[in-house]
Amino acid sequence: MGSELIYRGSETQPSSDSYSPKPVKPWASVTRIIHYLLREQRLLFVFVGIAIATLIFTVFPTSSAPYVAPHSRFTTLIPDSITYFPIETQQKFSSAHRLGFGSANPTSKIPLGLKRKGLRIVVTGGAGFVGSHLVDRLIARGDSVIVVDNFFTGRKQNVMHHFGNPNFELIRHDVVEPLLLEVDQIYHLACPASPVHYKFNPVKTIISFILLQNLITGLLQACLAKRVGARFLLTSTSEVYGDPLQHPQKETYWGNVNPIG
Ligand SMILES: O=C(O)[C@H]1O[C@H](OP(=O)(O)OP(=O)(O)OC[C@H]2O[C@@H](n3ccc(=O)[nH]c3=O)[C@H](O)[C@@H]2O)[C@H](O)[C@@H](O)[C@@H]1O
């Protein structure tokens, strides 16, 4: 009797142990997301969030409010206006624009509602006349500025109204010495501007001229301009054109020298 007991299941058992995976439902993940959103009014909250964000970006198109220094010399901070500068300064700025620095304009390329990323900028000679006005302008448009100046002819008072602003730093330093800084742009305005000043230390003046190449490349390297892709603006003087017959000199006036050879 016992020998006749045969396990019936063995007849239906597959002969091989091969594994067959579950069939894949192609829309499973999509339907799961839709179900998730429809539950507990989550979709409603998403729409409310979008509506609030749209409202904020419409009411406040740019979120980068310029820093207004407590004792700023300028009461009008118009983002792309330079009308409050003296004529000669305007000419310097407009030539800087032509050199490509205008591309950092905060207002021209930033889409509505997006905050412009401030640049890190070194201004050598930033405590001088031209430099300090440039610093005001850069700070006003939201950049971080490091002034490097040895106060040879410049004055701390020219930049004092920025003290306490986290976007401003002042370093007393002679630009002929190396300085390691990571920045996006370098405006090199440190220079004794008149014979009275550059005759004060004729040896250093001569050395500076001899070192000019070093000074520029040194600054470029010191400020890691090459590595971080920083732009470099070197300012000069209209005196390079020789004794001028016109004043003020226009960009079209070449004086006694053809600057392009
Ligand atoms: O050409 C012009 O239109 C202007 O030139 C100069 O203005 P600027 O070139 O800014 O000369 P400074 O005011 O003397 O500024 C030069 C700055 O460089 C600094 N500097 C100079 C030499 C140096 O080796 N290192 C250095 O940091 C000085 O301390 C100073 O802060 C005159 O000061 C202005 O009156 C004139 O209008």
From TrEMBL:
Keyword line: Decarboxylase, Glycoprotein, Golgi apparatus, Lyase, Membrane, NAD, Signal-anchor, Transmembrane, Transmembrane helix
Documented EC number(s): 4.1.1.35
Subcellular location: Golgi apparatus membrane; Golgi apparatus, Golgi stack membrane
Membrane topology: Single-pass type II membrane protein
Stated family: Belongs to the NAD(P)-dependent epimerase/dehydratase family. UDP-glucuronic acid decarboxylase subfamily.
Comp. bias intervals (Polar residues): 10-19
Native organism taxonomy: Eukaryota, Viridiplantae, Streptophyta, Embryophyta, Tracheophyta
Main location: Golgi
Region feature (Disordered): 1-24
GO molecular function, one term: NAD+ binding
Any one of the GO BP annotations: UDP-D-xylose biosynthetic process
Organism: Gossypium aridum (American cotton)
Cofactor: NAD(+)
Reactions catalysed according to its record: UDP-alpha-D-glucuronate + H(+) = UDP-alpha-D-xylose + CO2
Pathway: Nucleotide-sugar biosynthesis; UDP-alpha-D-xylose biosynthesis; UDP-alpha-D-xylose from UDP-alpha-D-glucuronate: step 1/1
TM region positions: 42-60
One GO CC term on file: Golgi cisterna membrane
Top EC class for this record: lyase
InterPro entries for this protein: NAD(P)-bd_dom (IPR016040), NAD(P)-bd_dom_sf (IPR036291), UXS-like (IPR044516)
NAD(P)-binding domain ranges (all copies): 123-252
Organism superkingdom: Eukaryota
Keyword Electron transport: no
PANTHER family membership: UDP-GLUCURONATE DECARBOXYLASE, UDP-GLUCURONIC ACID DECARBOXYLASE-RELATED
Classification via Pfam families: GDP_Man_Dehyd (PF16363)
Name of the protein this chain belongs to: UDP-glucuronic acid decarboxylase 1
Function as written in the Swiss-Prot or TrEMBL entry: Catalyzes the NAD-dependent decarboxylation of UDP-glucuronic acid to UDP-xylose. Necessary for the biosynthesis of the core tetrasaccharide in glycosaminoglycan biosynthesis.
